[in-house]
Protein backbone atom coordinates (compact mmCIF):
# COMPACT_ATOMS: atom_id res chain seq x y z
CA UNK A 1 0.00 0.00 0.00
CA UNK A 2 2.67 2.52 1.01
CA UNK A 3 4.76 1.61 -2.02
CA UNK A 4 1.76 2.44 -4.19
CA UNK A 5 1.21 5.76 -2.42
CA UNK A 6 4.87 6.72 -2.77
CA UNK A 7 4.84 5.74 -6.46
CA UNK A 8 1.79 7.93 -7.07
CA UNK A 9 3.39 10.86 -5.26
CA UNK A 10 6.51 10.48 -7.38
CA UNK A 11 4.45 10.44 -10.58
CA UNK A 12 2.50 13.57 -9.69
CA UNK A 13 5.73 15.46 -8.96
CA UNK A 14 8.26 13.99 -11.39
CA UNK A 15 6.06 13.52 -14.48
CA UNK A 16 4.91 17.17 -14.59
CA UNK A 17 8.53 18.36 -14.20
CA UNK A 18 9.66 16.11 -17.06
CA UNK A 19 6.68 17.11 -19.19
CA UNK A 20 7.36 20.81 -18.71
CA UNK A 21 11.03 20.31 -19.63
CA UNK A 22 10.29 18.53 -22.94
CA UNK A 23 7.77 21.05 -24.27
CA UNK A 24 7.82 24.76 -24.95
CA UNK A 25 8.45 26.88 -21.88
CA UNK A 26 5.51 28.60 -20.26
CA UNK A 27 4.96 32.17 -21.31
CA UNK A 28 5.20 34.83 -18.61
CA UNK A 29 1.40 35.03 -18.48
CA UNK A 30 1.00 31.26 -18.26
CA UNK A 31 3.56 31.15 -15.46
CA UNK A 32 1.69 33.84 -13.51
CA UNK A 33 -1.63 32.04 -13.95
CA UNK A 34 -0.09 28.71 -12.92
CA UNK A 35 1.10 30.30 -9.67
CA UNK A 36 -2.46 31.48 -8.96
CA UNK A 37 -3.85 28.02 -9.70
CA UNK A 38 -1.28 26.43 -7.38
CA UNK A 39 -2.27 28.80 -4.57
CA UNK A 40 -5.92 27.76 -4.98
CA UNK A 41 -4.88 24.09 -5.11
CA UNK A 42 -2.80 24.27 -1.93
CA UNK A 43 -5.56 26.13 -0.07
CA UNK A 44 -8.15 23.53 -1.14
CA UNK A 45 -5.79 20.69 -0.17
CA UNK A 46 -5.25 22.16 3.30
CA UNK A 47 -8.99 22.64 3.81
CA UNK A 48 -9.74 19.05 2.78
CA UNK A 49 -7.06 17.65 5.07
CA UNK A 50 -8.08 19.69 8.11
CA UNK A 51 -11.83 19.17 7.68
CA UNK A 52 -11.50 15.43 7.03
CA UNK A 53 -9.16 14.98 10.01
CA UNK A 54 -11.50 16.81 12.38
CA UNK A 55 -14.78 15.37 11.07
CA UNK A 56 -13.49 11.82 10.41
CA UNK A 57 -15.27 12.03 7.05
CA UNK A 58 -12.64 11.49 4.37
CA UNK A 59 -14.82 12.26 1.36
CA UNK A 60 -14.03 15.98 1.44
CA UNK A 61 -12.01 15.68 -1.79
CA UNK A 62 -14.92 13.76 -3.34
CA UNK A 63 -17.13 16.79 -2.65
CA UNK A 64 -14.72 19.06 -4.50
CA UNK A 65 -13.82 16.70 -7.35
CA UNK A 66 -16.62 17.98 -9.58
CA UNK A 67 -16.40 21.58 -8.38
CA UNK A 68 -12.73 22.62 -8.45
CA UNK A 69 -12.22 22.28 -12.24
CA UNK A 70 -14.86 24.98 -12.71
CA UNK A 71 -12.94 27.81 -10.98
CA UNK A 72 -9.64 26.54 -12.41
CA UNK A 73 -10.84 26.87 -16.00
CA UNK A 74 -12.65 30.16 -15.41
CA UNK A 75 -9.54 31.64 -13.76
CA UNK A 76 -7.59 30.78 -16.90
CA UNK A 77 -10.33 32.19 -19.13
CA UNK A 78 -10.41 35.41 -17.11
CA UNK A 79 -6.64 35.84 -17.13
CA UNK A 80 -6.58 35.26 -20.90
CA UNK A 81 -8.96 38.15 -21.46
CA UNK A 82 -11.76 35.67 -22.18
CA UNK A 83 -10.36 34.07 -25.31
CA UNK A 84 -13.14 32.31 -27.21
CA UNK A 85 -11.62 28.84 -26.96
CA UNK A 86 -11.09 29.19 -23.21
CA UNK A 87 -14.68 30.35 -22.71
CA UNK A 88 -15.83 27.22 -24.57
CA UNK A 89 -13.54 25.04 -22.44
CA UNK A 90 -14.82 26.63 -19.23
CA UNK A 91 -18.45 26.19 -20.31
CA UNK A 92 -17.92 22.50 -21.07
CA UNK A 93 -16.21 21.96 -17.71
CA UNK A 94 -19.01 23.84 -15.95
CA UNK A 95 -21.65 21.61 -17.57
CA UNK A 96 -19.65 18.52 -16.59
CA UNK A 97 -19.13 19.75 -13.03
CA UNK A 98 -22.71 20.77 -12.32
CA UNK A 99 -24.07 17.45 -13.61
CA UNK A 100 -21.59 15.38 -11.60
CA UNK A 101 -22.20 17.50 -8.49
CA UNK A 102 -25.94 16.87 -8.81
CA UNK A 103 -25.35 13.12 -8.99
CA UNK A 104 -23.06 13.26 -5.95
CA UNK A 105 -25.59 15.38 -4.07
CA UNK A 106 -28.56 13.05 -4.55
CA UNK A 107 -26.47 10.21 -3.13
CA UNK A 108 -26.08 12.18 0.10
CA UNK A 109 -22.61 13.53 -0.58
CA UNK A 110 -23.38 17.11 0.41
CA UNK A 111 -24.93 18.54 3.54
CA UNK A 112 -25.68 21.95 5.02
CA UNK A 113 -23.08 20.95 7.59
CA UNK A 114 -20.44 20.85 4.87
CA UNK A 115 -18.08 18.64 6.86
CA UNK A 116 -20.68 15.85 7.05
CA UNK A 117 -22.35 13.86 4.28
CA UNK A 118 -22.01 10.29 3.07
CA UNK A 119 -18.45 8.96 3.09
CA UNK A 120 -17.17 6.77 0.25
CA UNK A 121 -17.41 3.16 1.51
CA UNK A 122 -13.91 2.43 0.20
CA UNK A 123 -12.24 4.68 2.78
CA UNK A 124 -13.64 2.54 5.62
CA UNK A 125 -12.30 -0.59 3.90
CA UNK A 126 -8.86 1.00 3.57
CA UNK A 127 -8.84 2.18 7.19
CA UNK A 128 -9.38 -1.41 8.32
CA UNK A 129 -6.23 -2.65 6.58
CA UNK A 130 -3.34 -3.44 8.98
CA UNK A 131 -0.90 -1.13 7.19
CA UNK A 132 -3.25 1.83 7.69
CA UNK A 133 -4.96 0.97 10.98
CA UNK A 134 -2.66 3.06 13.17
CA UNK A 135 -3.98 6.59 13.61
CA UNK A 136 -0.80 8.35 12.51
CA UNK A 137 -0.50 6.15 9.41
CA UNK A 138 -4.05 6.95 8.32
CA UNK A 139 -3.45 10.67 8.91
CA UNK A 140 -0.34 10.50 6.73
CA UNK A 141 -2.27 8.63 4.05
CA UNK A 142 -5.01 11.25 4.24
CA UNK A 143 -2.48 14.04 3.82
CA UNK A 144 -0.36 12.53 1.05
CA UNK A 145 -2.84 10.59 -1.08
CA UNK A 146 -6.42 11.59 -0.32
CA UNK A 147 -5.69 15.32 -0.04
CA UNK A 148 -2.39 16.20 -1.74
CA UNK A 149 -2.42 13.69 -4.59
CA UNK A 150 -6.08 13.69 -5.53
CA UNK A 151 -6.46 17.47 -5.32
CA UNK A 152 -3.31 17.78 -7.43
CA UNK A 153 -4.76 15.48 -10.06
CA UNK A 154 -7.88 17.65 -10.25
CA UNK A 155 -5.65 20.61 -11.12
CA UNK A 156 -3.60 18.63 -13.64
CA UNK A 157 -6.58 17.47 -15.71
CA UNK A 158 -7.55 21.12 -16.28
CA UNK A 159 -4.09 22.23 -17.46
CA UNK A 160 -4.99 21.94 -21.17
CA UNK A 161 -6.81 25.23 -20.56
CA UNK A 162 -3.56 26.84 -19.41
CA UNK A 163 -1.67 25.38 -22.38
CA UNK A 164 -4.35 26.74 -24.74
CA UNK A 165 -3.82 30.37 -23.72
CA UNK A 166 -2.87 32.50 -26.70
CA UNK A 167 -3.84 29.72 -29.10
CA UNK A 168 -5.69 31.85 -31.61
CA UNK A 169 -9.20 31.53 -33.00
CA UNK A 170 -11.54 28.55 -32.83
CA UNK A 171 -11.49 25.96 -35.61
CA UNK A 172 -13.71 23.13 -36.81
CA UNK A 173 -11.55 20.82 -34.68
CA UNK A 174 -12.67 22.66 -31.53
CA UNK A 175 -16.28 22.11 -32.58
CA UNK A 176 -15.75 18.37 -32.94
CA UNK A 177 -14.06 18.25 -29.53
CA UNK A 178 -16.96 20.12 -27.90
CA UNK A 179 -19.57 17.84 -29.50
CA UNK A 180 -17.69 14.73 -28.34
CA UNK A 181 -17.37 16.12 -24.82
CA UNK A 182 -21.07 16.87 -24.51
CA UNK A 183 -21.79 13.43 -25.96
CA UNK A 184 -19.79 11.69 -23.23
CA UNK A 185 -21.38 13.91 -20.58
CA UNK A 186 -24.74 12.57 -21.80
CA UNK A 187 -23.46 8.97 -21.72
CA UNK A 188 -22.12 9.45 -18.19
CA UNK A 189 -25.48 10.91 -17.16
CA UNK A 190 -27.33 7.89 -18.57
CA UNK A 191 -24.94 5.47 -16.82
CA UNK A 192 -25.37 7.19 -13.46
CA UNK A 193 -29.15 7.27 -13.90
CA UNK A 194 -29.28 3.56 -14.74
CA UNK A 195 -27.29 2.75 -11.62
CA UNK A 196 -29.47 5.08 -9.53
CA UNK A 197 -32.66 3.50 -10.86
CA UNK A 198 -31.38 -0.02 -10.17
CA UNK A 199 -30.48 0.61 -6.54
CA UNK A 200 -33.66 2.61 -5.93
CA UNK A 201 -35.77 -0.24 -7.28
CA UNK A 202 -33.74 -2.79 -5.32
CA UNK A 203 -34.31 -0.92 -2.05
CA UNK A 204 -38.03 -0.68 -2.83
CA UNK A 205 -38.22 -4.43 -3.56
CA UNK A 206 -36.42 -5.27 -0.31
CA UNK A 207 -38.73 -2.97 1.64
CA UNK A 208 -41.81 -4.55 0.05
CA UNK A 209 -40.71 -7.99 1.26
CA UNK A 210 -41.18 -11.32 -0.45
CA UNK A 211 -38.87 -12.96 -2.95
CA UNK A 212 -36.50 -10.60 -4.73
CA UNK A 213 -36.34 -10.78 -8.53
CA UNK A 214 -33.16 -12.38 -9.82
CA UNK A 215 -31.72 -9.09 -11.09
CA UNK A 216 -31.88 -7.66 -7.56
CA UNK A 217 -30.60 -10.79 -5.83
CA UNK A 218 -27.29 -10.53 -7.67
CA UNK A 219 -26.81 -7.11 -6.01
CA UNK A 220 -25.32 -5.07 -8.84
CA UNK A 221 -26.47 -3.53 -12.09
CA UNK A 222 -25.38 -5.37 -15.25
CA UNK A 223 -27.87 -4.16 -17.86
CA UNK A 224 -28.04 -1.14 -20.15
CA UNK A 225 -24.67 0.57 -20.45
CA UNK A 226 -23.49 -1.58 -17.54
CA UNK A 227 -23.97 -4.62 -19.74
CA UNK A 228 -21.57 -3.19 -22.33
CA UNK A 229 -18.74 -2.26 -19.94
CA UNK A 230 -18.41 -2.73 -16.20
CA UNK A 231 -17.70 0.96 -15.55
CA UNK A 232 -19.50 3.11 -18.14
CA UNK A 233 -19.28 6.11 -15.80
CA UNK A 234 -15.50 5.70 -15.45
CA UNK A 235 -15.18 5.17 -19.21
CA UNK A 236 -17.04 8.40 -19.88
CA UNK A 237 -15.04 10.30 -17.26
CA UNK A 238 -11.75 9.17 -18.77
CA UNK A 239 -12.96 9.94 -22.29
CA UNK A 240 -14.05 13.44 -21.24
CA UNK A 241 -10.65 14.45 -19.88
CA UNK A 242 -8.67 12.75 -22.65
CA UNK A 243 -10.78 14.58 -25.25
CA UNK A 244 -10.50 17.82 -23.25
CA UNK A 245 -6.73 17.60 -23.74
CA UNK A 246 -7.23 17.95 -27.51
CA UNK A 247 -8.33 21.55 -27.05
CA UNK A 248 -4.65 22.23 -26.33
CA UNK A 249 -3.71 20.31 -29.48
CA UNK A 250 -6.03 22.55 -31.48
CA UNK A 251 -4.60 25.66 -29.82
CA UNK A 252 -0.91 24.77 -30.21
CA UNK A 253 -0.81 22.55 -33.28
CA UNK A 254 1.26 20.08 -31.22
CA UNK A 255 -0.18 16.60 -30.74
CA UNK A 256 1.90 16.03 -27.60
CA UNK A 257 2.40 18.73 -24.99
CA UNK A 258 2.87 18.90 -21.23
CA UNK A 259 -0.84 19.27 -20.45
CA UNK A 260 -1.41 15.59 -21.32
CA UNK A 261 -0.05 14.57 -17.91
CA UNK A 262 -3.41 14.97 -16.19
CA UNK A 263 -5.18 12.56 -18.54
CA UNK A 264 -2.38 9.98 -18.18
CA UNK A 265 -2.43 10.10 -14.39
CA UNK A 266 -6.23 9.96 -14.36
CA UNK A 267 -6.15 6.70 -16.35
CA UNK A 268 -3.71 5.24 -13.81
CA UNK A 269 -5.86 6.36 -10.87
CA UNK A 270 -9.08 4.97 -12.35
CA UNK A 271 -7.42 1.67 -13.20
CA UNK A 272 -6.28 1.27 -9.60
CA UNK A 273 -9.60 2.54 -8.22
CA UNK A 274 -11.60 0.11 -10.33
CA UNK A 275 -9.33 -2.76 -9.21
CA UNK A 276 -10.04 -1.89 -5.59
CA UNK A 277 -13.78 -1.44 -6.11
CA UNK A 278 -14.07 -4.72 -7.97
CA UNK A 279 -12.17 -6.60 -5.27
CA UNK A 280 -14.83 -5.40 -2.80
CA UNK A 281 -17.70 -6.26 -5.17
CA UNK A 282 -16.29 -9.74 -5.80
CA UNK A 283 -16.31 -10.40 -2.07
CA UNK A 284 -19.90 -9.17 -1.67
CA UNK A 285 -21.57 -10.61 -4.77
CA UNK A 286 -21.01 -14.26 -5.82
CA UNK A 287 -22.05 -13.56 -9.43
CA UNK A 288 -19.66 -10.65 -9.90
CA UNK A 289 -16.79 -12.87 -11.07
CA UNK A 290 -18.92 -14.12 -13.97
CA UNK A 291 -19.84 -10.51 -14.77
CA UNK A 292 -16.13 -9.69 -14.93
CA UNK A 293 -15.50 -12.55 -17.36
CA UNK A 294 -18.24 -11.63 -19.83
CA UNK A 295 -18.11 -7.82 -19.66
CA UNK A 296 -15.12 -5.60 -20.52
CA UNK A 297 -13.90 -3.15 -17.90
CA UNK A 298 -13.69 0.14 -19.82
CA UNK A 299 -13.65 -0.44 -23.57
CA UNK A 300 -16.51 -2.29 -25.32
CA UNK A 301 -15.69 -5.57 -27.09
CA UNK A 302 -12.20 -5.84 -25.55
Report on the biggest sheet.
none
Number of helices: 13
Distance between the termini: 29 Å
Q: Which H/E pattern describes the elements?
A: HHHHHHHHHHHHH
Tell the overall outline. globular
- Rg from alpha-carbon coordinates: 20 Å
Low-confidence runs: none
How many domain modules?
1
* Overall pLDDT level: 90
What's the layout of helices and strands?
Elements: H1 2-21, H2 28-55, H3 60-65, H4 69-79, H5 84-106, H6 121-127, H7 135-157, H8 159-163, H9 172-208, H10 214-217, H11 232-252, H12 261-284, H13 288-294
Please describe what this structure looks like.
The chain has 302 residues and is mainly alpha-helical. It has one domain. 72% of the residues lie in helices and 0% in strands. The two termini are 29 Å apart.
Keyword list:
302 residues, mainly alpha, 13 helices, globular
Give a nutshell description of this structure.
The protein has 302 residues and is mainly α.
